[in-house]
Specification:
By secondary structure, the chain is an alpha+beta fold. The chain is built from 6 helices and 16 strands. It has 3 domains: 81 residues, Tumor Necrosis Factor Receptor, subunit A, domain 2 (Ribbon), CATH 2.10.50; 54 residues, Tumor Necrosis Factor Receptor, subunit A, domain 2 (Ribbon); 116 residues, no CATH class. The protein is 26% helix and 20% strand. The chain has a two-stranded antiparallel sheet. The chain has a two-stranded antiparallel ribbon with strand order 3-4. The protein has a two-stranded antiparallel sheet with strand order 5-6. The structure holds 2-acetamido-2-deoxy-beta-D-glucopyranose (2 copies).
Length: 296
């Protein structure tokens, strides 16, 4: 908007002084025919100046056509085009209207940061969502507090409380950790005989041993050694991914032990002891014996 020449400024000031009653804003306009400076009314939001005022006629305002808008009182010759286009990660927050441009916001699952829509982060296993992400804020994670766990990487799951084995009338086989639930069993008097050649335990007790071994709270390195020692030399398995997470490794180990149990009935105990020795894990072997030794 260029400043009008000084006589017009003077006129405008005079008019402003004369009546605050005139709440409609005005603008200076030079009549093309007479060359005379006039003071025309502006047009309200949603309209534009279709025809400026004349000596004896007021300003004619026209409604903005579709996909166009004016947000303020104006003396524009045409409405502005709604030029905001929502991006791939955005959705329309407010459609284009006669008085405003289109507005966009980040789609669900994304939040706005420095003008970009970024995906809400997932909380890794062992951590849960403390506050879900919003259109303006990323997901807030917290390490699972004692008594709770989260097994998955998720942007929505909170930490879940551990199963209460006692309340279920069962014994705790593996205490819960931030990464997995408590594992209960009703295997009470385990036959240590299972660890001798040819002996089979009950299904429940075999499951209990598998859970107990797979979810031991031992170092990742030891878990890997045990997992490798359990690979049947006769079978070709793909080598484990180099940087496999603990949770994934434990699931794989669990799977391996269950397969072993299915494939060769009665061989679980013996095979397990062999593997524990090959992996040089005497401590784990001892705790298995202690844990499952029937009360004398
Ligand atoms: C588990 O349940 C038992 C019996 O219902 C209760 O006494 C105990 O406090 C519970 N433990 C936890 C950790 O909630
Ligand atoms: C132990 O649980 C299994 C199922 O998980 C069930 O079939 C079995 O009867 C239970 N045994 C006892 C003694 O409760």
């Amino acid at each position: 908007m260029r400043a009008p020449p000084w006589p017009v400024t003077a006129l405008l000031l005079a008019l402003a002084a004369r009546g605050a009653a005139a709440s409609v804003p005005t603008y200076p306009w030079r009549d093309a025919e007479t060359g005379e400076w006039l003071v025309c009314d502006q047009c309200p939001p949603g309209t534009f100046v279709q025809r400026p005022c004349g000596r004896d006629s007021p300003t004619t305002c026209g409604a903005c056509p579709p996909r166009h808008y004016t947000q303020f009182w104006n003396y524009l010759e045409r409405c502005r085009y709604c030029n905001v286009i929502c991006g791939e990660r955005e959705e329309e927050a407010r459609p284009c209207g006669a008085t405003h441009n289109r507005a966009c916001r980040c789609r669900s699952g994304f939040f706005e940061h420095a003008g970009f829509c970024l995906e809400h982060a997932s909380c890794p296993p062992g951590a849960g969502v403390a506050a879900p992400g919003t259109p303006s804020q990323n997901t807030q994670c917290q390490p699972c507090p004692p008594g709770t766990f989260s097994t998955s990487s998720s942007s929505s799951e909170r930490c879940q409380p551990h199963r209460n084995c006692t309340a279920l009338g069962l014994a705790v086989n593996v205490p819960g950790s931030p990464f997995h639930d408590a594992l209960c069993t009703n295997c009470t008097s385990f036959q240590l005989g299972l660890l001798e050649p040819g002996a089979r335990g009950t299904e429940e007790c075999e499951h209990a041993v598998v859970d107990f071994v797979a979810f031991q709270d031992i170092s990742l390195k030891r878990l890997q050694r045990l997992q490798q020692a359990l690979v049947d030399p006769g079978t070709q398995r793909p080598p484990p991914p180099l940087r496999e997470g603990r949770a994934a490794l434990q699931r794989r180990l669990w799977q391996q032990l269950m397969e072993l149990r299915e494939a060769r009935p009665g061989a679980l105990g013996v095979r397990l002891l062999q593997a524990l020795r090959a992996a040089r894990l005497p401590g784990l072997e001892r705790s298995i014996r202690e844990h499952f030794l029937p009360a004398q």
